[in-house]
Amino acid sequence: MRYQRSSALFRSAQEVIPGGVNSPVRAFKAVGGAPVYVEKAKGAYLYDVDGNTLIDYISSWGPMILGHAFEPVIDAVKKRAESGTSFGMPTELETQIAELAVKMVPNIDKIRMVNSGTEACMSAIRLARGWTLREKIIKFTGCYHGHSDAFLIQAGSGAITFGVPNSPGVTQGTAKDTLLAQYNDLESVSNHFKQYPDQIAAIIVEPVAGNMGCIPPQTGFIEGLRKLCNDYQTLLIFDEVMTGFRLARGGAQESLGVNADIITYGKVIGGGLPVGAFAARAEIMDYLAPEGPVYQAGTLSGNPLAMAAGFTMLTHLNQNPEVFERLEIKTKSLASGISSLLDKKSFPFQINRYGSMMSLHFTDQPVVDFKTAALGNNEDFKTYFNGMLDRGVYLPPSAFESYFLNDALSEKDIDFTLSAFEDWLNKRS
Question: Is residue 45 among the annotated active site residues?
Fold first, then answer.
């Protein structure tokens, strides 16, 4: 395929934008070459600046659950824009989307809009600390909750050691309050509670992890976190920036049958525009300013364009729950097809799948956490990514990212993808 224009644009971008991109994964560091520059998108397809058409399996990293340029969303944004793009004042639409979200999601009474998933997770942690009057939090290696300082922490030398900063600019003081545990390993979590029984404000977790590939929780893991939080009067935070309104109308809480204390949202709730949110029971949310002492604010929070897009998207999902069933069927079909082709070649692989999320790992060991995800053959993944790109299929440009399928994908698209994969596999082997 031709990517001359994309390559030229990337070179120009590197002169004025750090690394040439406004989010690091876009730089194609893990797969090589210049990133693809998009001209437009519609339904299941991306159209790049070089005239190539690509089947899209990232869906803008999740929010385009109904496909690109979904007409009701586009129409709602256009109509709203005609009345103004921002006021810094309340609008009725903010209440309408809040009422709808509360109706769709179990165990929440109130929700506050913010501008990104990072902001939602950052605010949720502050609220948990204010509510519990504790300072430490537990997060899991490989789970990403945005680029706030408290989340940019990597593991120390032992299971119960403090974390250390994962980025310059993150202070040791911040790091000491972030405890690292291993996803799908309850013992690593329990050890922290044994050492700090009265100091842990919250556990924050992706209930289905999406930043080390798609990693579903093993049986009893999420339930075990819930019990530990109950036992130690700690708040359980579900980071549903990816899973919220994607796995089900009520997100992971509904899908897994486990209630969290605070839930964070992004992606789907904005209908493709920059939106985040966090929600909880009334007693917790009422601890926020202006009603309570925990301060949180945002000039553009509840932006009318974003609210119009999000309200339209959530309304459609609420009225058409069969979307989630269709997405699961499509994802299962893709995963089964890839698995069948790899089995014929005796190629080492693992496919993880949950709802409309999945990932392919080139390893012969089950992928259940960050450590096992890191065992995948990155050279095979690099060849796979570029081979599929050359054949008209756009995948996540990192082995540590989940695929996100959208409802606009057709059986024909999946068949095309499997044919492209078979062709790549035959030439690879």
Answer: no
